[in-house]
Design brief:
Layout (H helix, E strand, L loop, with lengths): L13 H22 L3 H27 L5 H40 L41 H24 L3 H33 L6 H33 L9 H26 L1
Subcellular location: Cell membrane; Membrane
Family: Belongs to the cytochrome c oxidase subunit 3 family.
Main location: membrane
Amino acid sequence: MSGGSYYVPESSKWPALGSLAVGIMMAGLGTLLVYGRGALVMTLGMVAVLSVMFLWFRDVVRESRQGLYDDQMDRSFRWGMGWFIFSEVMFFAAFFGALFYVRTFAVPWLDGEGAKGVAALLWPDFTASWPLMNPPDAGISGPRESVSPWQLPLANTLFLVSSSITLTIAHEALKEGYRRTARNWLIGTLVLGISFLVVQGFEYYEAYAHLGLTLEAGIYGSTFFLLTGFHGLHVTIGAITLAVMLGRIIKGHFTRDDHFAFEAASWYWHFVDVVWIGLFLFVYVF
């Protein structure tokens, strides 16, 4: 690159392979949820997704280290990351929208409320409540109990809020050139993120083993695991990305003024944290 020319990356196979890997993973997950089989396909898809992530990261890092990127390329990366996070906002907006629709409209209609209260004729003995512990259809068993927000979910909230603080400190340290400080605070962020996933695993076990809260436990169980499960997946992806950033810091890849990869990973992590605040409030508390 010379004379301010714009670097155009060579054709990449990773977007197509990444889409294929995600498709395989989701097909396996869907088959597992609906038919009780498909774990192998889902696992292969997950391995493929992680492999594509690793190889794609590798190529971008190599191009960056070779000095191929200019200011225009940097702006392209920023716009790309911005639009990606916007797409994630819409992703979770759809899930939250489903939750609010069920709670505000569908369940009350079945109890005779609102303009479509005639739906109450389907199950005249149904009484609306949320969390929906007693689904109107007697063929569906609701959960015995809901998850208390003031135990494991509160601990996870503290973990993620703290992780945003430690990540911000790491970012500020990197901007000041304190590489060792940035490394240590980033390690702390990863420990908090992994702690979140471990606690969520315990919560899922408790829900299935003792509370009767499963994917089959009516609309409450479905929305609960849909929202918290996909958020947990995003935390996992964010932790993998931050682990890559940690490796790059240890190798000395970033400078005070040139560390957008770290900044982009920080944007993603903070977004995931904000989504969790919404989950904690509207899935667990209210």
